[in-house]
């Protein structure tokens, strides 16, 4: 049976569970408790919930104020608005003041589909990642989302987590979700090409690797949920074994996973790097799946580009 | 607690300290320092329940200087209150590698949050006041803003939430000196009717002569007694207060006085302190 639990709901479930024993967990929303799957939290813990209304600057400023007083604060708001409307509050009040605020950007990337560019957040990875002392995580499925949030609850630094809107196919399972903080998860091992993906692109990257195996091409697949801090060791290990590197992300082509991986590879292990991402323009109208297929961000597209890159690399 | 008579003298010493810090560092936001320094003094000397020994106490009062550029005034009161060493601040302010920068740095003892970009303090203060309520603690949160700062929309987002959550443990101050870097606030972006604006957002409003120690003292007391809503004190101040060299001059928003100006300002401070010492 296909998974029906969106990553954002998995996050809410963790917070619901942990808040029973930890009165310092506080969730803030900006008229977004429904869209962020946080309605159950607001209902169960009204004293630990804060509604900011449609005011993202106030949302993040309040979050930082609460965090400075010892609260473990989670802000759940659409990624498009959270990552740009409150950008300066993220920079100054969260990162610079070093407050324990975890920003959950929900319905990120092109999740909102036909609602258009105002609702898309393809710049969030680059924008938030450019801020010193901000971490950027894109979990690939509900199990990893839960493990990530459980881990973030244990530290006191600011972070940005981007998840999508709808349920996505599982990458892991309840009993098999290897997770180490700030370390990529190896999902396939291969010596022809290293595919490094994050967020919802991990599942199609695995499927593409399996498709490539039928063609006699051995691909490594890394789940690089930690876009910042990037797992440099994993990147270099994967790149050094392969003829080329292919990054896959639901984001702008600049300043995200591809840029970061290319920087590391160019500096320390020069190899051809191909970045598969959304274009530097408003995306075509469609559902997430239609948009991904259009730009080659699906199993077939990833496999096709991998073959092309290996040809170019002289495979 | 110092007597009002002592504060009437202290205000000039604090101004001299701020001026000396500016001279040592090669410049500072002197005009706003001089308008707001009485507010900071009355707050720290009479109302804010925090001391160097209690900077990590969960029950301490919180203060945010949202008009973070008035940092030299903030340094002078932090030094006077024992959080920082004046000689060290003067020696290193704005120097290479120094923690004493031109805006609040919460790596320094006694400073809760970084600021510098305007319009941030009130939302953060709302969060602090909410935390007090969640934790059933009786600390109060104070935030000081400039009047030019009120053009930032985030101020009014914070005004909404402070009122929405009836945060009577929150007190904001607007340093209404009517000048900003480009000129009079009323010419740059009109800030008239502040009393009506804040009242319409649901705040308790106290409009006072903002360089009056007794008025500030009474306003902070009234704010603490007001229940069911947050209080904003519109402190009607004079930019550059304390010396005719700089009073009401927008060009003194950020300035490094010449040696001659420094001496004239210092003489003015000394004269006003002398006059205060003879006042009944």
What this model shows, in words?
The complex is a heterodimer of chains A (315) and B (280). With 315 residues, chain A is α/β, with parallel strands linked by helices. Helices cover 38% and strands 17% of the residues of chain A. Chain A contains 12 helices and 12 strands. In chain A, helix 1 runs parallel beside helix 7 (142-152), helix 3 (56-68) runs parallel beside helix 5 and helix 8 (202-214) packs across helix 12. Chain A starts with 6 loop residues before the first helix and ends with a helix. Chain B has one domain: Thiamin diphosphate (ThDP)-binding fold, Pyr/PP domains (Rossmann fold, 3-Layer(aba) Sandwich), CATH 3.40.50.970. Chain B is built from 10 helices and 7 strands. In chain B, the strands form 2 sheets. A 5-stranded parallel sheet of chain B has the order 1-2-3-7-6, with helices on both faces. Chain B has a two-stranded antiparallel sheet with strand order 4-5. The model of chain B has no long low-confidence stretch (mean pLDDT 97). The chains are: A alpha/beta (315), B alpha/beta (280). At the A-B interface, helix 3 and helix 5 of A face helix 5 and helix 6 of B.
